[in-house]
């Protein structure tokens, strides 16, 4: 059952990542999407291992469908995998199995902050220094354009993922079924 749920959540992460609005900015583009909600939800529902795999795989698969992102799919696997992993570690700490709203909220915040830090570091090191050939000052300045969408994605995930998890857990409990 865990393999099936991990695959299902990976598919939802991929589709959520595809549902995006891309905005042009001074140094390229930025976007906001629903994939982060699914990454946090994966960690909450599946725990650290299943959540990390679903988040990483679903996001990397999305990247492999787009020529603009395909070369970074391995980075996305790691950074988005960390999102689900961290969310799962907190949501499932103390044998809670993602069933306590306050811990799910904290899990989503921690996952979002972890991902945002990794994403911004990737933007600085990979996009700015390595590929862009920028010095550290301009590479850091370029991150300013990523902050609005990164913050928006994080806030939407923090609001939505714990609520969705609560609804799914309630339905699961009513049906007498387990997700993991």
UniProtKB/TrEMBL annotation:
One Pfam family matching this protein: ECF-ribofla_trS
Keyword Transmembrane helix attached: yes
Cellular component GO terms, alphabetical: membrane
Coiled-coil spans in chain: none
Protein name: ECF transporter S component
Positions of transmembrane segments: 34-62, 74-95, 101-121, 151-168
Key words of the record: Membrane, Transmembrane, Transmembrane helix
């Amino acid at each position: 059952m865990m393999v099936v749920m991990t695959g299902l959540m990976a598919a939802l992460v991929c589709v959520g990542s595809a549902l995006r609005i891309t905005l042009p900015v001074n140094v390229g583009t930025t976007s906001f999407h629903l994939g982060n909600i699914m990454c946090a939800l994966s960690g909450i529902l599946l725990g650290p291992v299943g959540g990390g795999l679903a988040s990483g795989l679903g996001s990397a698969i999305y990247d492999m469908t787009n020529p603009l992102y395909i070369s970074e799919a391995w980075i996305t696997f790691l950074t988005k995998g960390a999102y689900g992993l961290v969310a799962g570690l907190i949501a499932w700490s103390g044998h809670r199995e993602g069933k306590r709203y306050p811990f799910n909220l904290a899990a989503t915040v921690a996952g979002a902050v972890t991902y945002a830090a990794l994403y911004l570091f990737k933007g600085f090191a990979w996009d700015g220094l390595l590929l862009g050939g920028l010095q550290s000052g301009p590479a850091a300045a370029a991150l300013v354009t990523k902050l609005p969408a990164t913050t928006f994605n994080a806030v939407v995930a923090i609001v939505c993922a714990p609520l969705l998890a609560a609804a799914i857990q309630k339905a699961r409990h009513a049906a007498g079924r387990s997700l993991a």
